[in-house]
Design goal:
Elements: H1 2-28, H2 34-38, H3 43-65, H4 70-93, H5 100-122, H6 129-132
Length: about 130
Amino acid sequence: MKHKIVKIGALVSAFFGLLTVFAGGSVILDLFGMREKEGNYILFVVWANFICGFLYLIASYGFFKRKNWTASIIGFTVWILIAAFIVLFFRIWDEEPYENKTIIAMVFRTLLTLGLLWIARTFKNRVSIDMIL
């Protein structure tokens, strides 16, 4: 069961990472007219999500290989998302235009990342004394 949960974490992380890199890169590079489709996006949030996409991919590798550093990568991703949330709320406070879907997406992304962090911390590959002897 433990291995299945880690594999699910790896697959979710890989899928979400690829999706995030594609979506964020499309807005940043204005591929397929995505800037216009996104409306009032906040560039800092887009960049933060784009960077997190690469971290999700690295974490996916860590999940598959059962690396101890996977939780650190996901934890760093959580901090990036918290910083993006803070910037987003300051922008909202300054009454700058934004999309409600940005808030919904950030809440979803943060909760998903916290779930991945839980998996990484709970099921990480611990070296026991039995493995050494």
